[in-house]
Amino acid sequence: MKPYPTKSKTLPGTEFKEVHKKALAIFRVIQRKTKRRAYLRSTYFNKDKIFLDLFWQHLWDMEKWQDRMRRLKFYEAAIEMLRHSAHTPETKENPNKPGELLHRFTGMTNDKKLFCVQVKEDKRTSSKYMISMFPKK
Asked: pTM of the entire structure?
């Protein structure tokens, strides 16, 4: 699978507070544009909404702050990729819930780091939620 090249770099910072502050600033810009739940429109899904609030819940469920920071560093690149990428993701049915599809997009930051973004789709309502992002090994 060919990764989508983004113009964004990973968010700079060595402490969690720095990286979290920058990622939250990006999220707040998106959040101010909507009256209710924060979302972005995706090219791959024919301009359907992808809601972002589930990602933040998932992030705070993690025990280690190092893992949170590792994932947050790719936030800006993940947002850009979901908005503009038309590359086909790896799609499979969720083994735990048969009514959900999991889409995994692969991207590359401007500083040549590979990462994945996972989007959950509810089959019944066709709602899409960004669940997670992480560096690809």
From this structure: 0.90
